[in-house]
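Example record

The entry below shows one chain as it appears in the dataset: sequence first, then structure tokens.
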Amino acid sequence: MEHDPAVFIIILHYNRLDDTLECLESVYKNNYTNYKVVVVNNVPSDDPVNIVRERYPEAITINNKKNLGFTGGNNVGIRYAIENGADYVWLLNNDTEIGEDCLRKMVEKAESSGSIAVVSPAVHYFEDPERIQFSGCCMDWHQFRLLYPDLKKPIDAKFVCGENTCLWGTALLIKAGVIKKIGLLTEDFFAYWEGIEYSLRVIKNGMRNVVCDVARIYHKRQSPMVSGEKGLHYYYFMNRNFLLLGDRYIRGKIRRLRFKIRGLAEASDHVGNHRRSDIIDASLDGTWHGLRNFRGPLVINDGMPKSLKNILKAISGCHPVFISDVITFNFRQISSKIYNKYRSD
């Protein structure tokens, strides 16, 4: 490239200030030349911003008055970047560290084709750097689920650069022209599934999402060995936003009904996999709010009726997702489960 395009790196801070500072340290060691860093503080306090300014005075800081969620907080940074001449916007999780040449390789990949709209690096586990956490996925609308590659084998191109490739929101490099064309992250989601939704919007508009597998970032505390229990908000938003996603992209009364049945089954699967009552309630309330089209921040009131919760809890031991596969005609998934069960026996 004759001139490096201008990249604005948006780092959203909500908690774990040490992570944000370590992320910044890795960013300022990268070998790309034309970039600016924007730290968006989603905590209603000036303290994180003051510390960032002291350590990294070259960083641009924006202090939100309240927690706007992952989507709303990042959108504040995106707007600033677009208004100030960005060619690319890189949304980078604050709990990551980047390889020295990561950004350069991603920009080179993005510049290689006009059809490429969004690029993700390969996401590796910070605690196990050679192990890949994410290297692309795609949505299977027949089975209503995301398909992921077997990371122990060579990754099929459909996951990393296919027509239906979808990306996580962990480290999205987005062309500014794409943002101007299809918009910002959807704030209805608040957190989780936003990367997949944006990927689907890109595809709907005739463009592509790709993984630059030679570019690496390292995601902290995501390994099953060290991550521990996820927060209740995770279970709420993962269940709710899955249903909101289907509401945006699935058409036809029968297909929409099948999808909602699938959402209920996934929630009751969480019931079967967890003993903690608060996780169960968060999962089921998120599903209930998704069915009722609740949007934005987590809602703690008006949860799923106890009678329905009790029904789902009662059937959770009967492999509810298997039952859902039958109801929604996912015969490929059924045969796979039977085959795996046969092999394990």
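Notes for this example: Residues 233-344 form one domain. DSSP finds 13 helices and twelve strands in the chain.
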